[in-house]
Structure formats: structure tokens, C-alpha cells
Amino acid sequence: MSTAVQSCPLDPCPQLSADKLRVAELQDEAKLAGAVYDDPEARKLPEGYSEIRKEKELNEMGLSMKDLEPEDSGFRAAVFKKKDGKVVVAFKGTTMTSLEDWKNNAAQELKGKSDYYTRAQAISYELMESKVDNVSFTGHSLGGGLASAAARRSGKSASTFNAAGLNPKTLEDRPGGGHIDRVYVKGDIVTSIQIGPASKAASDKDWAIDPPKGIGARVKRALATGVGKLVGGWLGGFAGPIGAKVGSAGGGAAARGVMLHLMDSVDDSLQQKMESLQKEHSEKCG
């Protein structure tokens, strides 16, 4: 006579608590990735964070403002520090109207080399050499690709948002360092068209989050002003092979994908994810 062994269900509460904590961290890092797009005096930072801009403090990390805001380049980065000592370097992503940004996107995609990526890896190398503790990287879009390259070069971690891929040629001297959490909104145009080595090189763990509620209404408003066709055509003309794919999508598909790519959609989707986790935790864990 055999006795069936019943397995006990695993307690979901520890994992739910860990996910809530991590998503809260991702929300802060997303805000930093968004803040670096703004002028320094207009940056709104998460609670507990401040920006380091004094040369003395930067020099202690092996950096200077010339590394972060070079006069001869559109490359931009910022160093933020939390009260607990955590340091986060955020890289600015693509400005839609910047041809220089799009050229760097295309150069990295095709050749694995570009001025922006070289600068990002140089920053990460200096931080590694200065032995600054508890450093990580973040960025959105192109900035996410730069953060990925910095993480691989230094062996530090990165959190990226709707990030550009990473050509394996970029990593020839440091192919496997660091840990990268790649967060993307399902339907984001950049993530949707990335496949193969460039995508895999830029992620160790994927966080695929649902689009924010009301995205359909936003797309309709965009189409009413011709934004979908305009954006698709513009990218198709200036952004190389990736842009050609975006441009060919056109109309509503391009508008939806581009709107899901923006930081507003990332922030809203992360908040939606947090609320879902809080509800599930409350129902299952009290």
C-alpha cells in the first residue's frame, strides 16, 4: 500500500516582500534616469538622494564635471548619492531632436563603438579604480545602453529602463562583468525590435511590466496631432537600421510603441506594478 506524499505550498510572502522592496528601488532609479534629462537646477530627485557636482567630491571618485558634461559632446551623466551612502550614476538617454544622439545609437548598434559608449565605460573604469563602494548605474533608452556598458566594464550593477541593446563588440575586453536588471514596458518600440546578442548582452534579469492604464487614450491624442506618423518617419530617416524598422511601423503602432518607450510610461507602469504587489501582499499575507 503506497502513501501519497502531498507537497506543502510555498509561502509566497517572503518573495512578495522582496519584490515590493526591489520595485521601490527601481522606482527611485527610474526617477534618477529621468532626472538626468533635465537641467541640473530643475532635477526632481527621489527622497533621500542628492546630486554630487562639487569637483572635490567628484575627484575623490576619480571623476570631474568634464567627464559628466563635456563641452564638445552631447553626452551627459550625473552622480547621485543616497543618505545611506549608495551612489548611482545616471546616463542621459536619447533626445528625440538630437542627431548626435541618434548617430551614437546607430554607431553602437552597427559597430559596437561610439563616443558616448567610450565615455560611459571610462567613467565606470575610474569609479572602479577609485574603489568607491556601493556604486551602480542607471539610464533610460540610450542611457540604459550606456549604463549596461558601464556595468559590464566595471563589474558593478545596473538598472535600465526601455534600454538600447548592447553590441557584444562593445564588451570585447570585459564580456561578462556586473549584473543588469532590464526593466521594459511591454510593447515599448525599442525593446520590441531588439533580438539576438545585442539584447542578451544588456540583461541578466528582465522585468517585463504591463503598459499603464489609459495608454490607448494617449495614443489617440497623439494620432490626432499626427505624432505617430511624424515620429515614425523621423526615426526612419535618421536612426539607421533600428530607425528604419520604427519608421516602417508608422501610424498607430509607432505612436503606441514610442509612447510606451517614454519615461512617463515607465514611471506609471512601475507604480501600477507596485500597487499590484501591495494588493497581492495584503490579500495573501495580511
Topology diagram in text:
Elements: H1 13-35, E1 49-52, H2 55-59, H3 65-68, E2 77-82, E3 87-91, H4 99-111, H5 115-130, E4 135-140, H6 142-154, E5 157-161, E6 179-185, H7 189-192, H8 197-200, E7 205-209, H9 215-224, H10 227-238, H11 240-249, H12 251-261, H13 263-285
Parallel strand pairs: 3-4, 4-5, 5-6, 6-7
Antiparallel strand pairs: 1-2, 2-3
Structural key phrases:
286 residues, alpha/beta, Rossmann fold, seven-stranded mixed sheet, globular
Task: Tell me about this structure.
With 286 residues, this protein is α/β, with parallel strands linked by helices. The protein has a domain at 22-211: 3-Layer(aba) Sandwich (Rossmann fold). 52% of the residues lie in helices and 13% in strands. It has helices spanning 13-35, 55-59, 65-68, 99-111, 115-130, 142-154, 189-192, 197-200, 215-224, 227-238, 240-249, 251-261, 263-285; strands at residues 49-52, 77-82, 87-91, 135-140, 157-161, 179-185, 205-209. The chain has a seven-stranded mixed beta sheet with strand order 1-2-3-4-5-6-7, sandwiched between helices. The chain is globular, with a radius of gyration of 20 Å. The protein starts with 12 loop residues before the first helix and ends with a helix.
